[in-house]
Amino acid sequence: YRFFHWELEYADLFERRGGFDLTIGNPPWTKIEWEEIGLLSDYEPRIEVKEWSGEMIDRNRMSIIEERKIREEYLSEYESLRALQKYLNAKQNYPLLQNVQANLYKAFMPRAWKNSCEGGVTAFITQDGVYNDTKGKKLRKECYRRLNYLFSFQNEKRLFPIGHTRRFELQVFQEGGGETEFDFLSN
């Protein structure tokens, strides 16, 4: 693991300016959920090639793990994923993500806000989902408090390798804003 401590790496900047003036990013759009199919199909390709059902995987899981001698890797992968889920959903780490479907891009938002100075701007390209997540009230409230611009697109012309039906957003936030007011462009 390569942990990064912003306040230590940029101590002079945080002391002098209170944080960054500008943060721009395209964080990973990765749901944090256990998908053993990816790991198991690396060792047993028939799982994906023949599109095994969940029942078929359940019946063959232990034999694949034992025959390919991947017990340690399987358990390690599961433990790492569960630990990351717990970390992202822990109130003391990310209080805005409580009960929200864990997705790495959502964790980048509060971290970047915390790293911003007063008046600092943060912009992200993300999946859509922050503004329609039924359990995301806390995160959404903080987004609206900072939101200046929201551009919502569909990958209709397939400019990005995410499929043509996938929606994505460009969100521009600013620290220290007053009332909720933002420009919105869709499609």
Report on the structure:
This protein has 187 residues and is of the alpha/beta class. It has 8 helices and 5 strands; from the N terminus they run H-H-E-H-H-H-H-H-E-H-E-E-E. The mean pLDDT is 90.
- Which outline best applies? globular
Can you summarize the main beta sheet? Answer: 5 strands, mixed
Determine the structural class based on helices, strands and strand pairing: alpha/beta
N-C termini distance: 39 Å
Regions with little confidence, pLDDT below 50 for 5+ residues: none
Run of helices and strands: HHEHHHHHEHEEE
Strand content: 15-25%
Please give the order of strands in the largest beta sheet: 1-2-4-3-5
The total count of helices amounts to 8
Average pLDDT value? 90
Task: State the share of residues found in helices, binned by percent.
Answer: 40-55%
User: How many beta-strand elements?
Assistant: 5
Q: Provide the gyration radius in Å.
A: 20 Å
Structure described in brief:
By secondary structure, the protein is of the alpha/beta class.
List keywords for this structure.
alpha/beta, five-stranded mixed beta sheet, about 20% strand, about 190 residues
Layout of helices and strands:
Layout: H1 6-9, H2 11-17, E1 20-25, H3 36-43, H4 46-49, H5 54-67, H6 71-89, H7 104-115, E2 116-127, H8 137-146, E3 147-154, E4 167-174, E5 183-186
Parallel strand pairs: 1-2, 3-5
Antiparallel strand pairs: 2-4, 3-4
